């Protein structure tokens, strides 16, 4: 890594999503993980989220990479759906007076938050 810095590369304050080692940017602006020998793309996301880091698989891992990317895409989609449902249920809960429905909504919210926490802890 010291050699990379001496040769003009910049170490970023982000970690590789595969091996958790520092990501570097070369003089051309290309980001990469020197440990995995992969290109890494930093994608700007919504304002309330941090930057998302996507790793480009090397030739040997292209088949695995497809499944990795698809899995991440599905997890991101699930996360968005859960957040939308939490918002809908929270709005319903504000105006609800029936105890049984309040309990049902609360249980749904608890389950949604548990799933979100599980997803976020595995990243």
The mean pLDDT is 80
Order of helices and strands: HEEEEEHH
| Fraction of helical residues | 40-55%
Q: Looking across the biggest beta sheet, what order are the strands in?
A: 1-2-3-4-5
Instruction: Give the overall shape, derived from the CA principal axes.
Output: rod-shaped
Number of domains: 2
Contiguous uncertain segments of 5+ residues: none
Could you give the distance between the termini? 24 Å
Radius of gyration over all CA atoms, rounded: 20 Å
Question: What is the β-strand count?
Answer: 5
Number of helical segments?
Answer: 3
Largest sheet: 5 strands, antiparallel
Helix and strand content put the structural class at alpha+beta
Strand percent estimate? 15-25%
Description:
By secondary structure, the protein is of the alpha+beta class. It has two domains: 1-56, no CATH class; 57-123. 50% of the residues lie in helices and 19% in strands. It is built from three helices and five strands. The chain has a five-stranded antiparallel β-sheet with strand order 1-2-3-4-5, with no helix packed on it. It is rod-shaped and about 65 Å long. It starts with a helix and ends with a helix. The mean pLDDT is 80.
